[in-house]
């Protein structure tokens, strides 16, 4: 074997050993429906890495289906928002080695949406459901914007409530040093924002 062929063979083995960027890009899709099982079109669905990275967003089609292509393996929060429905967060969503499909159910808000009550503060409240063993006595629900951060411990049944100045925030659920869920929320309008955090396997 000539030296040139030997070098080409070595390069071929090295290229085969390199991780494929295509293999690292995965598909995450799902379906959004209401409590009656009907499709909800036009829902804003956002995917945010729990440990830093770019936020991805899309909307559901006429059939309530959403899809994210080229998702890197990792741990995420997935949120769904549609006017007149409860802002809902699913986490942690673990994207691993194969395509993932996740169905989301949104609960309709009473009175057709936000309950306005003041122009100075907004109330963000809700409940953590699923995986109660992951929620400990020091688990906190937090709202942060820049260096401004407000937190509260969970109440009975995983409930939480925080009054905040109307603006955009990062909503998060933290146990010790572990971030269980994290998602952007637009609370710029005065009123009450009903939310829900669903902890997954």
Features:
single chain; mainly beta; Immunoglobulin-like; seven-stranded mixed β-sheet; four-stranded antiparallel β-sheet; 2 helices; globular
Chart the SSEs and their pairings.
Elements (H helix, E strand, L loop, with lengths): L2 H15 L3 H4 E10 L9 E6 L6 E4 L5 E8 L1 E8 L5 E9 L4 E7 L15 E8 L10 E6 L2 E6 L5 E6 L2 E9 L2 E10 L4 E8 L2
Parallel strand pairs: 1-7, 6-14, 8-14
Antiparallel strand pairs: 1-4, 2-3, 2-5, 5-6, 8-11, 9-10, 9-12, 12-13
Short description:
By secondary structure, the protein is mostly beta strands. It has helices at 3-17, 21-24, and strands at 25-34, 44-49, 56-59, 65-72, 74-81, 87-95, 100-106, 122-129, 140-145, 148-153, 159-164, 167-175, 178-187, 192-199. It has one domain (21-199): Sandwich (Immunoglobulin-like).
Describe the structure.
It is a single chain. This protein has 201 residues and is mainly beta. It has a single domain, classed as Immunoglobulin-like, CATH 2.60.40. 9% of the residues lie in helices and 52% in strands. The protein contains two helices and 14 strands; from the N terminus they run H-H-E-E-E-E-E-E-E-E-E-E-E-E-E-E. The protein has helices spanning 3-17, 21-24; strands spanning 25-34, 44-49, 56-59, 65-72, 74-81, 87-95, 100-106, 122-129, 140-145, 148-153, 159-164, 167-175, 178-187, 192-199. The strands form three sheets. The chain has a seven-stranded mixed beta sheet, with no helix packed on it. Strands 10-9-12-13 form a four-stranded antiparallel beta sheet, with no helix packed on it. Strands 4-1-7 form a three-stranded mixed beta sheet. Strand 12 (167-175) and strand 13 (178-187) form a beta hairpin. The longest helix has 15 residues, at 3-17. The protein is globular. Mean pLDDT is 84; it is low at 5-11 and 13-23.
């Amino acid at each position: 074997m000539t030296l040139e062929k030997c070098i080409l063979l070595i390069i071929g083995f090295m290229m085969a050993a390199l991780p494929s960027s295509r293999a690292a890009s995965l598909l995450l899709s799902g379906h959004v429906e209401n409590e009656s099982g009907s499709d909800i079109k036009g829902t804003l669905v956002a995917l945010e890495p729990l440990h830093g990275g770019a936020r991805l967003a899309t909307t559901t089609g006429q059939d309530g289906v959403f899809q994210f292509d080229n998702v890197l393996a990792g741990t995420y929060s997935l949120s769904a928002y549609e006017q007149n429905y409860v802002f809902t967060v699913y986490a942690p969503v673990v994207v691993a080695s194969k395509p993932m499909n996740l169905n989301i159910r949104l609960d309709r808000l009473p009175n057709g949406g936000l309950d306005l009550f003041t122009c100075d503060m907004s109330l963000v409240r809700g409940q953590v459901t699923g995986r109660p063993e992951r929620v400990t006595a020091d688990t906190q629900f937090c709202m942060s914007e820049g260096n401004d951060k407000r937190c509260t411990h969970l109440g009975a049944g995983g409930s939480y409530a925080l009054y905040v100045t109307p603006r955009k925030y990062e909503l998060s659920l933290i146990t010790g040093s572990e971030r269980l869920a994290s998602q952007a929320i637009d609370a710029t309008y005065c009123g009450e924002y009903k939310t829900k955090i669903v902890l997954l396997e």
